[in-house]
Amino acid sequence: MSVMRASRRSISGLTPATAAALSAAAVLALSACGDGASGTTTEDGRLRVTASFYPMQFLAEEIGGRHAEVSTLTKPGTEPHDLELSPRQTGDLADAGLIVYLKDMQPAVDEAIGQSGAEHVVEASEFTSLEKHGGEEDGHGDEGHEEEEGADGGHEGHDHGGEDGADPHIWLDPVRYAEVAEGVGKAMAEADPDHAGAYEKNAAELADRLRELDGEFAEGLESRRTDTFITTHAAFGYLADRYGLVQESIKGLSPEAEPSAARMQQLQDIAEDDGVTTVFFETLVSDKTARTLAGDLGLATDVLDPIEGVTDKSKGDDYFGIMEANLGALQRALGAK
Fold first, then answer.
1. Among 24, 148, 258, 303, which is most buried by a count of CB atoms within 10 Å?
2. Type and span of the H or E element at 334
3. In this structure, are residues 169 and 286 in contact, taking their beta carbons and an 8 Å threshold?
4. What is the C-alpha to C-alpha distance for residues 149 and 114, in angstroms, rounded to an integer?
5. Pick from 302, 262, 241, 49: which is nearest to 139 by CA?
6. pTM, whole model, 2 decimals?
7. For 158-186, b where at least 16 C-beta lie within 10 A, e where not — what string?
8. What is the pLDDT of residues 149-188, one digit of tens each?
9. What is the pLDDT of residues 194-203, one digit of tens each?
């Protein structure tokens, strides 16, 4: 840092060429004050990866292994939809060796990444397909609990997610999440070619584990008494589509939205018609509305975790542990054998 102070004291008395040389030296000296020769790697040569929130962090950690240092923009316990970035977090994005994020999930992150100028950025949804999933505004009240089927047999609602209304919660479908894992593995290999083989191997192994998890869900939910479940916000559309279930949400895709009286009445009718036994809530948002609905209908409550973050309240230590807990909760609620 002394080089910069020296340049400020003496630069006015130097020739233009000498002043320019001294200024360049000051910049180099400041760069040397950082973490190693390159801001994109650690001192011991690990790739610096910045993840937007937990599902992206989990992928980067599993795939990166010992060759990556992974940080997340969303601290544990923070509802990711509401994230606001500090100026320092925004500035640090430019130094990341790789940024892994999911568009339309966190508007503040989308904007900051667009302004960062980072060289290596990977957007998770580009590796899989997105669908539209609704919630309160699905039109059930006007159509007698009927839904419009999408091309893949899923249920489409009106726009809730990004600009095109796509649902960003792809990680709750293990098959889509496996596709993203493979894509992130390739992106990490491109950002850090020296360890490309390790990243691609780890990504393939993670994708295999996720497809095994898909098999567990398919088998575990095959024989069930009802297809319908009620949850706080519409995070589980991809999971429902994958296993032939019907998600009914209290608040739509936004966990902050408040349901109308008409929607609450719809849910009461749906619960009675479809033999719903349980109203699900989650760990990062208030459970008040879910418990009120369950109390009014004499139904049980349980946790169905959208895995947007992991805290000491989570029913598992990581993605796989929480998904196993989710499977058990759905089996109980749906009367699966």
1. 303
2. helix 319-334
3. no
4. 35
5. 262
6. 0.80
7. eebbbeebbbbbbbbbbbbbbbbbbbbbb
8. 333 333 333 333 444 578 999 999 999 999 999 999 999 9
9. 999 999 999 9
